TrEMBL record:
Ribosomal protein as UniProt keyword: no
Keywords tagged on the record: Endonuclease, Hydrolase, Nuclease, Plasmid
Gene Ontology molecular-function annotations: endonuclease activity
Organism lineage: Bacteria, Bacillati, Cyanobacteriota, Cyanophyceae, Nostocales
Source organism superkingdom: Bacteria
Organism: Halotia branconii CENA392
Putative restriction endonuclease domain segment(s): 12-194
Keyword set includes Transmembrane: no
Protein name: Uma2 family endonuclease
InterPro entries (alphabetical): Nuclease_put_TT1808, Restrct_endonuc-II-like, Uma2
Length: 201
């Protein structure tokens, strides 16, 4: 049996071939299939809606784009596609690619990202924690509604978990919430939400 290494793509090749396809992102040149399912998309949509309501009521000058890629400046062949992203509209004028494509290069433009965990949970709990912290994104939500993450991340027994990562001195402090817990966000202090509220039917 022969091993066929995955095809390595540059950022530019990825944008040309897969930029409009929300199913894929690029990590260190490797194409990642995000494997979205109906329940996954429903959870992401509910979270985006809840966030938008808070932005509207608080009159923040933020926006929640339907699709968006993040090009971390320190990673050559990486294009991250968060399930939900919140952008500071005032900072968009500093984005070099935004006027032509929905691509964010500056971490200062991003207020919050949320990832809905699928079978490639290692990316959400490990790689993206480091990547988003390096970009100085104030909050990162990991929504593991099926309890897929490793035991070291969500505990034993595995159960649905909502992790709020809050940036403190360049490192994320992680706070875990289970079904029935009130989720707390420094970024959205008036948020009233439980994991139960975003679970798919």
């Amino acid at each position: 049996m022969t091993y066929t290494p995955p095809k390595i793509l540059s950022f530019e090749e990825f944008i040309t071939e897969y930029g409009d396809n929300t199913r894929y992102e690029l990590i260190d040149g490797e194409l990642r299939d995000m494997e979205p399912t109906g329940p996954h998309e429903a959870v992401a949509g509910t979270i985006a809606g809840r966030i938008y309501v808070e932005i509207f009521h608080s009159q923040f000058n933020w926006t929640v784009p339907k699709t968006c890629l993040i090009k971390p400046p320190a990673a050559e062949a990486t294009a991250l596609r968060p399930d939900v992203i919140v952008l500071d509209q005032e900072q968009l004028s500093n984005e070099p690619l935004w006027q032509k494509e929905p691509i964010i290069c500056n971490g200062s433009t991003i207020k919050l990202v949320a990832e809905v965990v699928s079978t490639n949970w290692q990316d959400d709990y490990a790689r993206k924690v480091e990547e988003y912290a390096f970009l100085n994104i104030p909050e990162y939500w990991i929504v593991d509604f099926r309890g897929l993450g490793g035991l070291q991340f969500i505990g034993n027994p595995k159960q649905p978990t909502f992790t709020v990562c809050q940036l403190v001195n360049g490192v994320y402090e992680q706070h875990q919430y289970r079904l029935g817990d009130n989720i707390l966000s420094n970024l959205l202090p008036n948020l009233k939400m439980k994991l139960n509220d975003v679970m798919p039917i």
